[in-house]
UniProtKB/TrEMBL annotation:
Note on cofactor: Binds 1 zinc ion per subunit.
Motif 'KMSKS' region, residue numbers: 324-328
Record bears the keyword Zinc: yes
Residues binding ATP: K327
InterPro entries: Cys-tRNA-ligase, Cys-tRNA-synt_Ia_DALR, Cys-tRNA/MSH_ligase, CysS_C, Rossmann-like_a/b/a_fold, tRNA-synt_1_cat_dom, tRNAsynth_Ia_anticodon-bd
Cofactor: Zn(2+)
Native source species: Bifidobacterium hominis
Catalytic function, reaction form: tRNA(Cys) + L-cysteine + ATP = L-cysteinyl-tRNA(Cys) + AMP + diphosphate
Gene name tied to this protein: cysS
Subunit (UniProt): Monomer.
Domain of life of the source: Bacteria
Keyword Metal-binding in record: yes
Name used for this protein in its record: Cysteine--tRNA ligase
Binding-site residues for Zn(2+), renumbered to this chain: C55, C268, H293, E297
Chief site of localization: cytoplasm
């Protein structure tokens, strides 16, 4: 059951090509590291490449927006790396074997693997609907039992784990990590307090559980296996667990240390090593995973003889009235429920509207501000496209390097992915573009003027695309979000039909104004307004958006 170590293929010419493709702006990228409590320059382990592992879902039930916030946050991080010219290997796991999955499946009369697959598909649908790029690899825990068993054997052989035996000396299936044997335990969550905390990390430490502040954690209930009296030390945690009497037979695996199933933390150590080898650039996840999950993961990975991630990044919570959004607390909003009232673009914008380390308060105002942002974005893109006679192709938008984007946008994202600053840069460009559009009819050098508008249009769309929000990209185009007709469930056919009907009304209104029949023109405008459609008159004609 030994894992095969694939040889590294180091080709000097390909490395040189990768480095050449990286934008100059990449040299200024600074990111926070949970372990050091500091923002520092990012330097990739391999030139031109970035390896990221982000903890995915435990597929026990439907996704809520608290889950998806982390996915959107790290999707933006990944997209910025790609815009900087890095080749990104992005791994996001699926935890498809877990106490909660087993218990909820049993209560619902389901097979555990059936329930896991149903909700894995729901998560995938939510990711796709909200424009989260598919991972390079998306491994399931159940597909990597051999990797986990081998890793546990290495930890035991290195003197950092122990097998619990029965009165006859036979292995019980319980294996624990020996925390006392590992002097580095607690470094991620600052048990040793060797780093000076800044204001942001103090908030994170206060709200996120740590070694010093575990207690009765309502967000991370203690694994029953970790309550065992067989542990040598209260801090020890399960690497492998003997099955409960209620566990089905097909949720048990035979190992040298007894029949059972993996502890919660071991899967991520095994899978990050399988797909990213030894040390990789970034390990990401939600703030609530810092302890015990990531602290334990870091310890067991290094105790097995492998380097852990070079940098740990954690996204903060979505809160409702100051309380973390959580299924266990009964205040979770499912993604499908939110999408019945808001377009996917608006929900994506709202989830990514603040820097990843900032708590995101979820409210009607948050969504209203996101809808207003959509209206401003779509209105400018439509007007600018009409003015220059075309929309730049997706190929052109994707090819824009970070070095060619506005400096304030680049500076914001290079400052630990400050999306608030990046959004401000986008709307600064839109205001400038609107000013150019308002003067376009008066410009003698109309071709030059149109070129200026087109440049702004390309920049705006490329900046939006970096945040996953270009309205003319998938999935927004297929969902009808690009034309201003986006509502939950809107599709291209509906948009086309509505656009045709409104355009006919706008043509009739234009004829009425030309004939100086202003009463008729106003009546058409008022009727469209009553139907929820806003009309904006420009030198190039009238455009419409949904209110």
């Amino acid at each position: 059951m030994t894992n095969t170590q694939e040889p590294q293929n180091i080709n000097i010419s390909s490395v040189a090509t990768a480095v050449d493709a990286v934008a100059s702006a990449a040299a200024d990228l600074k990111l926070y590291d949970t372990a050091s409590h500091a923002v520092s320059n990012f330097k990739p382990i391999k030139p031109g490449q970035v390896g990221m592992y982000v903890c995915g879902a435990t597929v026990q039930s439907s996704p809520h927006i608290g889950h998806i916030r982390a996915a959107v946050a790290f999707d933006v991080v990944r997209r910025w790396f790609e815009r900087l010219g890095y080749k990104v290997t992005f791994v996001r796991n699926v935890t498809d074997i877990d106490d909660k999955i087993l218990d909820k499946a049993s209560a619902a009369g389901q097979q555990w693997w059936e329930r896991a697959y149903i909700y894995e598909r729901e998560f995938t649908e939510a990711y796709n609907t909200l424009g989260v790029e598919p991972p390079t690899y998306e491994p399931r825990a159940t597909g990597h039992m051999i990797d986990m068993i081998d890793l546990i054997k290495q930890i035991i052989d290195n003197g950092h784990g122990y097998v619990v035996t029965d009165e006859n000396g036979n292995p019980t299936g319980n294996v624990y990590f020996d925390v006392a044997s590992w002097p580095h335990y607690g470094e991620l969550t600052h048990q040793k307090q060797t780093a000076v905390a800044d204001a942001a990390s103090e908030v994170a430490d206060a709200m996120g559980p740590s070694v010093d502040n575990a207690g009765n954690d309502k967000y991370n209930p203690v694994d029953p296996a970790d309550m065992s009296e067989d542990k040598h030390d209260p801090r020890d945690f399960a690497l492998w667990k003997a099955p409960k009497d209620s566990d089905p037979l097909d949720a048990r695996w035979n190992t040298p240390f007894g029949t059972g199933r993996p502890g919660w933390h071991i899967e991520c150590s095994a899978m990050s090593h399988r797909y990213l080898k030894d040390m990789f650039d970034i390990h990401g996840g939600g703030l609530d995973l810092r302890f015990p999950h990531h602290e334990n993961e870091m310890a067991q990975t290094r105790a097995a003889g492998y380097d852990s991630a070079a940098r740990w990044m954690h996204s903060a919570w979505v809160t409702a009235k100051g309380e973390k959004m959580s299924k266990s607390l009964g205040n979770g909003l499912s993604v499908p429920a939110v999408l019945t009232q808001n377009s996917a673009w608006v929900v994506r914008y709202a989830l990514g509207s603040v820097q990843y380390r900032s708590m995101l308060e979820w409210s009607d105002q948050t969504l209203a501000e996101a809808q207003s942002a959509y209206d401003r974005v779509s209105n400018f893109i439509e007007r600018a496209g009409a003015a220059v006679g075309e929309q730049p192709s997706r190929e052109e938008i994707v090819s824009i390097s970070a070095d060619d984007l506005p400096a304030d946008f680049v500076a914001a994202l290079n400052d630990d992915i400050n999306v608030s600053g990046a959004s401000a840069a986008i709307f600064t460009a839109i205001r400038f573009g609107n000013t150019l559009l308002s003067k376009l009819a008066d410009r003698v050098d109309s071709d030059i003027a149109k070129g200026e508008v087109r440049t702004v249009l390309v920049n705006v769309r490329a900046m939006l695309d970096t945040l996953g929000l270009d309205p003319l990209a998938e999935p927004w185009v297929s969902e009808g979000a690009a034309g201003g007709t986006a509502g939950a469930g809107a599709d291209s056919a509906e948009h086309t039909a509505l656009d045709r009907l409104v355009s006919e009304q706008l043509e009739e209104r234009a004829e009425a104004r030309k004939a100086k029949d202003f009463a008729r023109a106003d009546a058409i405008r008022d009727a469209l307004g009553a139907a929820g459609i806003t009309i904006e008159d420009t030198p190039q004609g009238s455009t419409w958006t949904l209110k």
